[in-house]
# Entry
Amino acid sequence: MEELVINLHIHSVYSDGSYTHQQIAEAGINSGLDGLIITDHNVLVHNMDGYFQKKGKKILVIVGEEIHNKVLTPQKNHLITFGQFKELCNYAENPQQLIHQVKKNGGLSFLAHPFEEPLPQVNETAIKWEDWNVDGYTGIEIWNHLSELKNESKSWLQLLAYVFFPNRYGYGPHPLSLKKWDELIISGKKLTAVGGSDAHRLKMKKAFLTRFIFPYQFHFKSVNNHLLIPHPLTGDYLIDRKIIIDAFQQGNSFIGYDLPASTKGFRFYAQGKRNTAIMGEEIELDSSITFQIKLPEVSECRLIHNGKVIKTWNDQEICTYVSKSPGIYRVECYIQFLGKKRGWIFSNPIYVLDKKK
# Structure
């Protein structure tokens, strides 16, 4: 299979970002990405998607939207959408109707930074997802890279340390996001987990200090979505756009924190007597299922079944586990970086079905 590295949840000059689409695309090319999904606030920017090129290299850019009700104070219920060609922010007042309209228009929708915390040092409120009665959405942004700065900065000193040494922050998805995702998929919802940059390159000024939070290339080398597709991209934008959207919809992907070490090459398979499944797919249980995990390098690897860790490996690049139980299986990997244990890889699930039911 082919592996694509896609960065999701990016803002441009059309909302509160500081780069044009061309500049963002160039930063993506310089970071070695295959694709970008730009999601400006409440505006679907037309004629800015397609393949961008620089010095013989190219990158695919999909334009989506981050939709929310602008009149709410404080803000809540932000929805990341892409795949639709129609502006849908006029449905923002009703999240369920908005999700329905996104789906009706061929788009995907993801609940953005669902458990974000406030950052009172700079008067930033928490922008959480609160309407958990909605249905029909594609998935959840379990790891938001910029949001994590708010979650981890408990004091001015800590915030400044992360601003000037950004490699020091980045620990993994919010624990409540992982817990909620597990609860929802165990209840029967098939939901894709994604990681988002929330990249803006915001200018922060305090007295004589000025910093950009954070450069686009920093985000692009950090939290990415790695998609598995059956064949290489064709070079035709509309065809390749559909390939990427389908992979996100099916959950044929994992979230990789590529700053400590590249996560490219990670694989998670389930092998039955008659067929094989990858992340996002279903497989019938016929006496037993063999799971195989391939790691880019040795790390702490956990196999999780129905929200609980059932096996941990610490010294292997190839991990194998045989199970006779139906349920939902996913993988988490952790790696040491700058003296701290960091979340490294978070797979989408493989769904093992009970053949008797």
Remarks:
- The mean pLDDT is 95.
- Residues 175 and 183 are 12 Å apart (CA to CA).
- The chain has two domains: 2-257, 267-354.
- The chain is about 20% helix and 35% strand.
